[in-house]
Design a protein that fits this description.
InterPro entries: BamC_C, NlpB/DapX. Helices cover 29% and strands 35% of the residues. The chain is an alpha+beta fold. The chain has two domains: 126 residues, Alpha-D-Glucose-1,6-Bisphosphate, Chain A, domain 4; 114 residues, TATA-Binding Protein (2-Layer Sandwich).
């Protein structure tokens, strides 16, 4: 069975499970699983923390052509840990429903879980490699209003370029990164107000922001990207503060 760093795996007679830290749920979750299944031509529906797949071939070379399966995949969160659990919802052969024995359940569920975890790990590692190797030059950016009516910073750069460049620009405005999840485009920031003269270097007045925690969300928009800064409660900054921060960032990104 595929292994996630510091994870535990088991088969409980019905489900193949892999348990991992809650921080890794940004990589291993139902939304990512649904994306992978769709890439394999398998449609599915998510209801809460349960995904049910449509009928699809098992994908195993040792099965007859008419063997199909529906998977039930659960995401479990408890006590600072997360888990993905794969079970057989239904199976049929040439249109006839049948119940697989325990050995078959273990074979099918473990095989599917193994493929999902391996694909998600490979995609994550590639993303991290791309981010770390991205060569970023100057690029232009400007203010926009996003689909949620929030003031945002639109950047003429890919997600990887924006992610990398903002990492070095934010500290120059007093925002230090506390934690980040590249897979979700999220950064948790700690803000310590700079002297007013520091902000005047960028042609803006120091924004009226309290010292404390802020969140930055970076999203890909085709070959471009956009960033929205919000407070600790997830509320977008007021217009004056947002304009000051984004305009200062725009100058840093352009050099």
């Amino acid at each position: 069975m595929a292994i996630i760093k510091n994870s535990l795996t088991q088969f409980d007679g019905e489900r193949a499970l892999i348990v991992y830290s809650d921080q890794q749920a940004a990589v291993y979750n139902l939304q990512q699983v649904q994306r992978l299944l769709k890439e394999d031509g398998i449609n599915s529906n998510i209801n809460g923390l349960v995904l049910l797949s449509d009928w699809a071939p098992t994908g195993r070379a040792d099965d007859s052509a008419g063997t199909e399966i529906r998977y039930k995949i659960e995401q479990i969160n408890a006590n600072g840990a997360s888990a993905l659990a794969v079970s057989v919802q239904q199976m049929r052969r040439d249109g006839v429903i049948f119940t697989p024995d325990v050995a078959a359940k273990q074979r099918y569920t473990s095989d599917r879980l193994n493929r999902l975890v391996a694909a998600l790990t490979e995609a994550y590692n590639k993303q991290q490699q791309d981010l770390s190797s991205t060569v970023v030059g100057a690029f232009q950016s400007g203010l926009i209003t996003d689909n949620n009516g929030r003031l945002a910073l639109a950047m003429d750069a890919t997600f990887a370029q924006a992610w990398s460049k903002l990492a070095s620009a934010l500290p120059q405005l007093g925002f230090d990164t506390v934690s980040e999840v590249a897979g979700r485009g999220q950064r948790e920031l700690k803000y310590k107000p700079l002297d007013k003269s520091e902000w005047l270097r960028f042609g803006v007045s120091r924004p009226d922001l309290e010292k404390g925690t802020y969140h930055l969300q970076i999203s890909a928009v085709g070959k471009q990207s956009a960033a929205v800064l919000s407070d600790e409660d997830g509320k977008a900054l007021n217009e004056d503060a947002a304009k000051a921060v984004y305009n200062a960032l725009a100058q840093l990104l352009a050099h």
